[in-house]
Amino acid sequence: MSWISGLLWGERRPTVYLTVVTALLLMQVSVLGESLSIDFRQAETDPLIEISPSRVPTDRHKLTRDGMRVIQAKDPPGGPKQSPGTIGAKTMVFASGDFTATLDWKVNEINEPESGWGQGVLFAADLDDLEKTQLQMSLLGRPGKGIVVRAARRGDQVMEPLQETFPVEFSEGQFRISRRNEIAIFSIVSEGNEKELTRFECPTADLRYVAVWCTRQERGNTSGDYLFRNLSVTADNFFTYQDSRVSRWSWWQIIVVIQGVLFAIFLSIWYYQKQQTQ
Questions:
Q1: Alpha-carbon distance 135 to 212, whole Å?
Q2: What pLDDT, on a 0 to 100 scale, did the predictor assign at position 196?
Q3: What integer pLDDT is reported at residue 234 of this predicted model?
Q4: Global pTM value
Q5: 5: exposed, middle or buried (C-beta count within 10 Å: 0-12, 13-18, 19+)?
Q6: Which of 10, 90, 110, 269 has its CA 20 to 30 A from that of 204?
Q7: pLDDT (0 to 100) of residue 260
Q8: What integer pLDDT is reported at residue 278 of this predicted model?
Q9: Is residue 216 within a helix (H) or strand (E), and if so which, with residue range?
C-alpha cells in the first residue's frame, strides 16, 4: 500500500488531485449532455424565442415579474364570428439524440368552450422526419367534458394520430416531453412530483423546435388566463443555438466552480505543508 500513500501524500499529490477533478468533470458533462433554458420574463429580448401574436385583438400577452402572461378573451356577445387566433412562442432548437423538453407554467383561468374541439394551452416538440412528427401535451377545456390533459403524437402523413386524454387535476407545474431511444414519454410535474402519463413509439429524427401556444376556436370561446414561466431543453447534442442575452448560472456550472475551489484549497494545503517541511 506504500505506492498508494505515495500518490496521496507524496510529491505527486497535485497531479493526482488534478486528474481526479478532471475525470469527475468529464463524467458529469457526459451524463448531463447539453441544455438551454429560456426565461419567459425575457421573452421579447431573448433571440432564441419568437412570439406569435393572436389575430384576435382582444387576446393579449404581457411580460410580468413572474413570466409571460397570456390573457384570452371570450367571444363578444352577439358579435360576428372571429377568425381563429393564437398567442404562442416558438423556439428553434436543433438537437439530436435523446432529449427532454420541459414547460413550467401556471393556469390562472381555464373554462370549457361553448363549442369546438377544446381550448387551452398546447406544448409541442417537432421532429425533422418525413412525417413531420409532432409530440404534443395540452391542457384543454372541452365542451361538456370538463378540463383534460392530452398527450399525442401527430404528423402530416399520419391518418390516425396516437393520443390519450386524462382527467388530471393540473393548475401549476410542468409539462414534460422526453424521448429515450425510440420511445416518447409524456409526464406532468406538480408540487415536485413527476407523474408519467403515457408512452408512444417515436422516430429518432432530430429535434427541430419546441413551441407553446394557446388554442382558440372560430366561435364559442370562453376566457382563459395563463402564465408561462420557463422553457428548458436538455439533449445529447445541439447543432447550434445562440445563447440568451441574459447571463445565468446553471447548476452544473456551480458544481464546476465548487470543484475548482476545492482543488485550489488542496493545492494551497500541499504547498503550505511542503514549505513547513523545508
A1: 12
A2: 95
A3: 92
A4: 0.71
A5: exposed
A6: 90
A7: 78
A8: 65
A9: none
22 is written with which cell numbers? 478532471
CA dist 148 and 145 (Å) reads 8
What does the DSSP assignment read for 14-73? HHHHHHHHHHHHHHHHHHH-EEEEEEGGGTTT-TTEEEE--SSTT-EEEEETTEEEEEEP
Provide block-wise average pLDDT over 10 residues at a time, the chain (278 residues). 45 48 41 74 83 81 92 72 72 88 93 82 92 92 87 82 86 94 94 92 92 82 90 86 48 72 78 71
The 3-state secondary structure of 228-256 reads EEEEEEEEEEEEECCCCCCCCCCHHHHHH
- 99 residue type, one letter: F
Separation CA 220–CA 223 (nearest Å): 10
Angstrom distance (rounded) from CA 251 to CA 268: 26
17 grid coordinates = 488531485
Q: Cell 416558438: give the residue.
A: 90
SS (H, E, C) 127-143: ECCCCCCEEEEEEEEEC
- What is the pLDDT, as a whole number, of residue 83? 57
Q: Which residue has the cell 414534460?
A: 176
Q: Which of 113, 178, 127 is nearest to 157 (CA)?
A: 127
Which DSSP category does 170 fall into?
Answer: -
Residues β-bridged to residue 120: 140
